[in-house]
Amino acid sequence: MNPFRKQNHYELLEISPGASPMEIRRAYKNAFELYKDESIVSYSFFTPEERKEIIAGLEDAYLTLINPESRAEYDRTLIASGAVEEEAPYYHKTRDPISIYDLRKTHADMIGPRRRTEDLKHVVSHNKLIQEIMSQDSLTGADLCKIRKELGISLEKIAEETNIRISMLRAIEGDDFDSFPPMVYLKGFLKSYARYLQVDEHVIIDGYIKRVGKQHS
């Protein structure tokens, strides 16, 4: 096995390029349990710094592969480099023949998420309150909550779709700094939160981290 620093996202999660979203979530959860601080299995083999680096890589792999757009872009780079064959990635499996009934069902399922994304982007770009909040130098949990509520999205839905514990989402929106995980995890959670709401992830992460920094200064 290659050293983890040289592994691509699929190798790091120990899944094939044809893995389904469910398989990606399961692999990430299993890997996280293996390398987290409380894990007896990895404690004797890796230093705390190495475990943090591995978990950061796992988080990046998960966030990249669980998002269809970023996964397709990542797959293209692997195909171009010859790391995987062109037919290997998951989205190529949709080329297999399917019945008319399944075609209609699949088509309907595909329209939903795409339309949702387009609708959210439209609301975000035209909502005055959201734009005012996003223009701030720093962001509070209350600011994130306002954005979410303006978009009509529940915490339960975000937790379900992003695999982030709802208690952690509540801690973020409540500025419960004592409940926060290490910074590398917090940034990953904020990235998933922002991507689901279709707002600029860099603005959300930078603005909220500044808020955290002010609290501890």
Task: Summarize the structure in words.
- With 217 residues, this protein is mainly alpha-helical.
- It has 2 domains: 4-94, Helix Hairpins; 99-216, Orthogonal Bundle (434 Repressor (Amino-terminal Domain)).
- The chain contains 12 helices and no strands.
- It has helices spanning 9-13, 21-35, 40-43, 48-66, 68-81, 100-126, 128-134, 141-150, 155-162, 166-173, 183-197, 201-216.
- Helix 4 packs across helix 5.
- It is globular and about 45 Å long.
- The termini are far apart.
CATH topology of the largest domain: 434 Repressor (Amino-terminal Domain)
Instruction: Give the integer mean of the pLDDT values.
Output: 80
**Range of strand content:** under 5%
Q: How many helical stretches?
A: 12
The dominant shape is globular
**Share in helix:** 55-70%
Broad structural category? mainly alpha
Q: Find the CATH superfamily of the largest domain.
A: lambda repressor-like DNA-binding domains
Assembly annotation: single chain
The total domain count is: 2
Summarize the structure.
The protein is mostly helical and 217 residues long.
Keywords:
217 residues; mainly alpha; Helix Hairpins; 434 Repressor (Amino-terminal Domain); 2 domains; 12 helices; 68% helix; 0% strand; globular
Write the layout of secondary structure elements.
Blueprint: H1 9-13, H2 21-35, H3 40-43, H4 48-66, H5 68-81, H6 100-126, H7 128-134, H8 141-150, H9 155-162, H10 166-173, H11 183-197, H12 201-216
